[in-house]
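Lab channel / #folding
Pinned by the channel admin:
"Please post every new chain as: sequence first, then the structure tokens as a reply. Keep commentary short and put observations after the output so the thread stays searchable."

First post following the new format, from NK:
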Amino acid sequence: MSRRNPRLSIAWKVGMAGVAAQGVTFGFARYGYGLFLPEIRRQFDLSVSLVGVIGSATYVSYLIALLLVGVLSTRWGPRPLVICGGMSAAAGMLLVAYAHGTGMLIAGLVMAGLSPGFAWAPYSDAVDRMVPVHQRERVMALIPSGTAFAVIIAGPLAIVAQGPTWQYAWTAFAVAALAVTLYNARILPGGSHHHAPRTPQQRLGLRWFARRPAVPLYATALSYGLIGAVYWTFAVDAVSQDLKDNDPTGPLFWTLMGLAGTAGVFTGSLIQRLGQRRTQMLLFLAMAVAIALLGVAPGAIPAVAASAVLYGPAFMAGSGLLAVWSYQVFPERPSTGFSSTVFFLGIGTIIGPTALGVVADRFSLSAAFLLTAAIAVLTLLAGPSRPVGAVRGAEHETVDAQHAKAEYRSGTHS
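Reply from TO:
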């Protein structure tokens, strides 16, 4: 099949490389901290305030990586940036696994926090350069689902890796990150995109980033980051607050969320069938209900299970929606545009846990979840309009796909 249609083979390999990279950087390096937090807190005797400071530091490092990607993507190309992300994930998780003190632990978590910032946005350029036009949206929507597959692996490991053995799980995560990085180094192109059509490009500046169609995109990304960070930070705590130590309910909830989240692989088909506007409405309403269930009945197993089943696919598909939407708003510089989109997402991740943590302290965790659910509903006011601009023309696609095919066969990717 690959001989008859080499483009299909390239699209498949790029998609799988992206799925694996998102799995190790988001599913392991980023969200592993929340899943293994009880064990980490016990070993290092961390206070609640220090846990919050560490969490904020990892999000700040994520934003720094996003800014670097926005500046360097057009010059370096996808490969070196994704390699930076994979190596920071592997090195950071090894530091966490073998940390002998709080300082080494924080350094490892901050380094691991850099990784998703480096390893997500560059796939907009990789897909643009290597995948034919008619497959790009599906591949872009597929890549974020890697987080769900990694969460499925991490949840059972958290049950098995009780006590000091949690460090072996992080060692395994680091080895997986290294393997995925080597695979991406072989697949992805590097260097500037010399084969794009020679059309004048608007100079980068505030007007370029603040174009009118980008405003609802940024608002949705900000909300998505906020409600996502609140859920990932507090959901397991809400589910486990009345349970005994080492009760498996929290990790099982995490695993169920990941299993349901694998439905995110169909995000591209969903967008094509419903359109971006209806897809956004469906996803944010599902997240709102999922969050509200934890606010109303965090101790009820049916409500907890329903929350995981609703939130998993909606959150994973939300990442794909933002990737496709951003590509249509910024077709001439996909990675730079997507970096600005994910930057707003990152701002939301910093605001969410801090602001809603204050609400939880003053009122209750249930009140914080209900307020977050209301924010998810309000996001529907910032829906996407019709696709902006035409996707690259057929002539460009033909030249680009032929070049990508030649690159892949020669193994140079430069």
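NK: The longest helix spans residues 48-76.
TO: also worth noting, The chain has one domain: 6-193+205-386+393-404.
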